[in-house]
Specification:
two-stranded antiparallel sheet; single chain; 33% helix; 100 residues; alpha+beta; 3 helices; Arc Repressor Mutant, subunit A
Length: 100
């Protein structure tokens, strides 16, 4: 089991979002920087309050959250399809399709 000792949540900091060590830097922001091609070293240079271990732990935290996210594909899915009618109004058609 991974211990996330650098990940904090405080309702008074970024509305309770997961942050790094109570700083006003969210886990989501750090993960987004990595997703956009920055290395941990580049992130630390850009955000000097962070350490490379903070970046690694943010990624591990995001991975743990994603792994716990299970989607039951047996429940029906509702699909919305919109199109314009002759008067310019948008018509929305809903269909229920089992287990897409």
């Amino acid at each position: 089991m991974t211990v996330f000792d650098r990940i904090t949540q405080n309702p008074d900091v970024l509305a309770g979002r997961a942050t790094i060590r109570g700083l006003w830097i969210s886990v989501a922001h750090v993960v987004n920087l990595v997703a956009n091609g920055m290395t941990p070293l580049q992130i630390v240079e850009e955000l000097p309050d962070l350490e490379e271990e903070d970046v690694r732990q943010a990624l591990a935290y995001a991975a743990a959250l994603a792994q716990d996210e299970l989607h039951d594909r047996t429940w029906p899915c509702i699909i919305a399809h919109g199109c314009l009618d002759t008067t310019g109004f948008v018509l929305i058609y809903l269909g229920v399709y089992p287990g897409l």
